[in-house]
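ugh ok so i messed up the first submission bc i forgot one of the chains. this is the corrected input, ALL of the components this time, i swear. 927 residues overall. if the numbers dont match what u have on ur side tell me asap before i send this to the collaborators (the ones from the other lab, u know who)
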Amino acid sequence: MTPWFQVGPLDDIPHLGSRVVRTPRGNIAVFRTDGDEVFALDDRCPHKQGPLSQGIVHGRRVTCPLHNFVIELATGQAVAPDQGCTPSYPAKVEDGVVWLSLQQTAAA
Amino acid sequence: MLDKTIKQKLVVIGNGMAGIRTVEALLERAPDLYDISVFGAEPYGNYNRILLSPVLAGEKTVDDIILNTEQWYADNQITLHQGETVTMIDRRTCEVVTEQGERYPYDRLLIATGSNPIVLPVPGAALPGVIGFRDIKDVEHMVEASTQHRHAVVIGGGLLGLEAANGLMKRGMKVTVVHLLDTLMERQLDPVAGGMLRKSLEERGLEFKMPAQTQTILGETHVSGVRFTDGTEVAADLVVMAVGIRPNIELAKKAGLHCERGIVVSDTMQTYDGRIYAVGECVQHRRQTYGLVAPLFDQAKVCANHLAMKGFATYDGSVVSTKLKVTGIDLFSAGDFAPGPDKEEIVLQDANRGVYKRIILRDKKIVGTVLYGDTIDGPWYFQHMRDGTDVSHMRERLVFGSAHLGDGGHGGQNSIAAMSDDAEICGCNGVCKGAIVQAISEKKLFTLDDVRAHTKASSSCGSCTGLVEQVLAFTLGGDYSAAPKVKPVCACTDHSHDDVRRVIVEQQLKSIPDVMRFMDWKTPNGCHSCRPALNYYLLATWPGEYRDDQQSRFINERVHANIQKDGTYSVVPRMWGGVTTPSELRAIADVADKFNIPTVKVTGGQRIDLLGVKKEDLPAVWADLNEAGMVSGHAYAKGLRTVKTCVGSEWCRFGTQDSTGLGIKIEKFMWGSWTPAKVKLAVSGCPRNCAESTCKDVGVICVDSGYEIHFAGAAGLHIKGTEFLTKTATEDEALEIIVALTQLYREQGWYLERMYKWCDRVGFDNIHKQVVDDVTNRKALFERFAYSQQFSQSDPWAARARRGVDRNEFTPMAELELA
Ligand code: SRM
Ligand SMILES: Cc1cc2nc3c(=O)[nH]c(=O)nc-3n(C[C@H](O)[C@H](O)[C@H](O)COP(=O)(O)OP(=O)(O)OC[C@H]3O[C@@H](n4cnc5c(N)ncnc54)[C@H](O)[C@@H]3O)c2cc1C
Ligand code: SF4
Ligand code: FES
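and heres the new structure output, hopefully the right one now
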């Protein structure tokens, strides 16, 4: 069983925005799309470790603030032709509360 | 399975560059709309015909130039009829009929049959050993001939002929080029450039016979020579006819479609039968036929848009430029360069360096360009030509181009041909010529955007764009960057910046989603390119009314500090006019100590930068700086940055006016304003210009009798001296003009377009008229700026440090203890 952690109300994350969750393993960025989906990625760009939480969110993607890699929120995969992948974590919303698991998503 | 039967059938005749590009664009837009089948007479998948020249020259193989493999067709559920020729279109039953007599029905049909080489109607033209230069089969034939024979004649001294001749020579043949006229490539080159080209090709070993008219091809069972009308003869075992192409319209004509030189199509690429489309070299659009890939790709895009039932794009014709793909020769040509009474020309000839440039102007606009030896500025001229820029104001420096004005980052190199593979082209990302060439060939890239995406070259500061375009042109030939005439904001839309600005006003659109909805954005909520642009346009159009969208701002503007490579931030307090006080300096020192800020640095903009501040410390750092009376320096903003000043008449023995005071006055009036790109000002107290006013967006030079106002300068990616706008007698009048000028720029500039580029685009005269001559207009502009300042002149630091604005931004959402 993956343990789930409660990280706060959904409304603490702006639409098309992100917040950071501190963990002993480093920062995790939690994103919220326009359609209120949430996704969680390591807050490190696969390119040069840029903080993805500081990027512009669009659709189900985020653009890294340092050199504009575009990363898929669902998988952490860089959008072609850029290459690389950031670890992703399961995240969900229940009754307006965001939950996060620290079990890295396998395929990522 | 079921949906397969209800899909409409799209049949494509011609498995070449234009046809398949259309299919690709269609799949992007509407992947499931059609059941697609493609007929191609050649026994290959779609390949890059342009690269036949390097294949012939032995620089590439056939495998290198295949664009779409059989797997690609399979992956996209396209039925490929490879090696099957369509012989008839039955418009009554809506079917195509193949050579084998089989019939295939269509709902929509796309004709992309390209063209055929023209065969001279001379005796002997049908002899074995006489061929054209069009497809893989021709190249194989030539390669084969080069292994067995020695003498080749190429008839035609145009682009194709010279590339064929070069290739055959590289294969070890002795080649004579025969040309009807006395200038090579006369459609692209003037006699001087044509002469230089001939000289360098002769040095490489080609022979020329020109002007000369072919009378007979000699030979019994195989070609043995060529005889000319002047009675002379040349021996030949191989004759390549490269005298031109003729649109391949037989099939369309037989089907009763209206044809002239090509198949006549409308602006949506439809023939007279609305179910039948045509693209490529077989097409005639607004009287024009095309023989280069760039315009065909434009056509393909429009055609795909219509086939996808979107129907808003139209094709308005293309301006083309050309490039000869002979390794080691730099040559660029675009537009109309025939001399004429209404034309002016600017010529630069440097025989020693082997450089020749000719720029032809009409009505203050560039209408043609011929460059030889130094072609780096080709794309720059071409862009101005397509945009119809009024270039009268840069006339004196026009011939030197943009790249020669001090751009850094690529070692000042400007000849692609002369560059070795390991020469660095992009100084930001460390990309060499060889890497770009390799990516273009291996990854089948065609456009500047492709190259940027795949290699990162030219994707950062962009100063090497000209070079990258030249590598692209050099590797592929032709002008592949030929974007549609009006550049869309980004890939999320087909609309241009101007369209967006106009529609926002006309339709009274007041939010980003409204703009996207009204203008049919292709993505649900844009991307990092268009959202910041839209946010700025709305903010500049509806000051006081529009609510700034923080999520559409780049991080620096969202948190009012500059992000650094390690994720920390830098903080630059405003220092009005570059003047500070002991107590401000003390406060800065205290802040640096208190928050362990690792670096304190004097910037190039006359103020102090605190680097390496942790994000969560920002509000506290700002609070302390606020306490000492300092506000944000907006060092991160597409907005007013710095107003540099010199000491002026207060102290300097040469000072004519109080430059420091004027600079502070301007800065206090203009700080906080958002602009399309950053705006930097300077005020110097005399023409010695110690504040470097003449390389700023706006610069003032004080003189004894008043204030000279200069603008449209820059000293970053491009170095550009300012233009002199006007002179005023008083400080107040100077301020009014500077503010009005900035407001006009705010209303017209494209997002990220620096003031000097805006001036290039809309024209100096236009700006002068509105800001200097028309006093009522100037005052109105000034008032609009002043009005919008009401809403923007509040310190964003104070808001965050004291009033808790965006508090969430600076704290983590949660801290998890266990893992
Ligand atoms: C700090 C500073 C360098 C320094 O240590 O002195 C600096 C730092 C940066 N410059 Fe600059 N520029 C600085 C003065 C300049 C100057 C000199 C000047 O202003 O007199 C220039 C050339 C003048 C000009 O702009 O024409 C300059 C031309 C650029 C450019 C090229 C702009 C262009 O249109 O050509 C960029 C890139 C851009 O803006 O896209 C740039 C971008 C940057 C960025 C914002 C890069 C980035 O996106 O992160 C750097 C931010 C670092 C930071 O966190 O502070 N910086 N930059 C200077 C800050 C001045 C200030 O007080 O605000
Ligand atoms: C050697 C060479 C060098 C070139 N260099 C450049 C350059 O540097 N820059 C540039 O911009 N352009 C260049 N071009 C021109 C460029 O290749 C053409 O403009 C482009 O390929 C035309 O595309 P198209 O789709 O209209 O025709 P094509 O690419 O010729 O495709 C048409 C296809 O239709 C097939 N076809 C025709 N009739 C039928 C039928 N009835 N049934 C089935 N199939 C049929 C043909 O076999 C062919 O494969 C060059 C061309 C050549 C030959
Ligand atoms: S401060 Fe300016 S010149 Fe220096 S590295 Fe950064 S962007 Fe380049
Ligand atoms: S660190 Fe993210 S793009 Fe470079």
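quick check: Chain A has a mean pLDDT of 92. that seems consistent at least. The two ends of chain A are 19 Å apart (CA to CA).
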